[in-house]
Specification:
Helices cover 36% and strands 23% of the residues. It has 258 residues and is an alpha/beta fold. The strands form two sheets. A six-stranded mixed β-sheet has the order 5-6-7-3-8-9, with helices on both faces. Helix 6 (167-182) links the parallel strand 6 and strand 7. Bound molecules: adenosine-5'-triphosphate and magnesium ion.
């Protein structure tokens, strides 16, 4: 296993089409080492598609997803993804982490040490022997983080990991994400929770209708977003503008042309 960094990750003019509709449009950006990027934008903006394209679950119709320090299996091994609803195997919490490590070829003795550590760091030691699917959603999400953390990814994509959690469970997940980041993993995460974005972001990407409309350091983005739609979004206004909408503002056709 190489210890070379696979970062930065670069997207160059990435487009993703489905049935002749462009869902991701001319997307270019770079993910350097060390930061926590929060991706925000209204429903259907393309946030989940972006993460799936980065993680290799979808292939761009045109353009490139480039990893600077690796290719193929190497790249796959060094990145992880966590979804809104964790999918647990029908076995104990401990075995769920063990399975991920064994698939990776980690020897048993090492596996046990790693499992103890990640369960402890995610506050799940007392649930080690419990059936994973019987844990609460918050506990399962922490287990999903423990499972992915055990593999020590260089970059971790998270798609609304706290969307179905209450504030205390969300707090615990955020603390774990900070610890994962402090331990050296680059974070790219979507959220609908602007408070969470303010708490966690080093930089913010604002997507709307498949386009990256703004990418800025968090302080700058929240203080003074440059894009008018980003301003509206930060103010908590709905982004309902549409050509055919009765409240449509004239002059926006060009901006939103497909
Ligand atoms: N695998 C797919 N194939 C085709 N179209 C898709 C696919 N996934 C999503 N879409 C469509 O692409 C658009 C963007 O979807 P996406 O799930 O990325 O939005 P999102 O920003 O994550 O929204 P939300 O905030 O609701 O999660 C939507 O119109 C959706 O219907
Ligand atoms: Mg989504």
């Amino acid at each position: 296993m190489t210890s070379e960094s696979i970062l930065p990750l670069q997207l160059e003019e990435v487009n993703f089409e489905y049935r002749h509709k462009r869902l991701i449009k001319d997307f270019s950006c770079s993910f350097e080492q060390g930061l926590r990027t929060i991706v925000i934008g209204p429903n259907g903006a393309g946030k989940s598609l972006l993460l799936r394209l980065c993680h290799g679950l979808l292939q761009p119709t045109s353009g490139q997803v480039l990893w600077q320090g690796g290719t193929g299996a190497d790249v796959a091994r060094h990145q992880g993804m966590v979804f809104q609803r964790p999918v647990m195997l029908r076995r104990s919490a401990r075995s769920n982490v063990d399975y991920a490590l064994s698939v990776r070829g980690v020897p048993r003795q090492t596996r046990n040490t790693i499992i103890d550590e990640v369960l402890q760091r995610t506050g799940l030691s007392r649930f080690a022997g419990a059936p994973a699917r019987q844990l609460s959603f918050g506990e399962q999400q922490r287990l999903a983080l423990a499972r992915v953390w055990a593999l020590q990814p260089q970059i971790l994509f998270l798609d609304e990991p706290t969307a179905s959690l209450d504030p205390p469970a969300t707090y615990l997940v955020e603390e774990i994400l900070k610890a994962i980041h402090d331990a050296g993993t680059r974070i790219v995460m979507t959220t609908h929770d602007l408070g969470q974005a303010r708490r966690l972001a080093d930089d913010v990407m604002f997507l709307h209708r498949g386009r990256l409309l703004e990418h800025a350091p968090a302080a700058q983005f929240f203080e003074e977003p440059q894009n008018d739609l980003a301003q509206a979004f930060v103010r908590g206004e709905l982004l309902w503008w549409h050509r055919k909408h009765p409240l449509h503002k004239p002059g926006q056709e060009e901006e939103f042309a497909e």
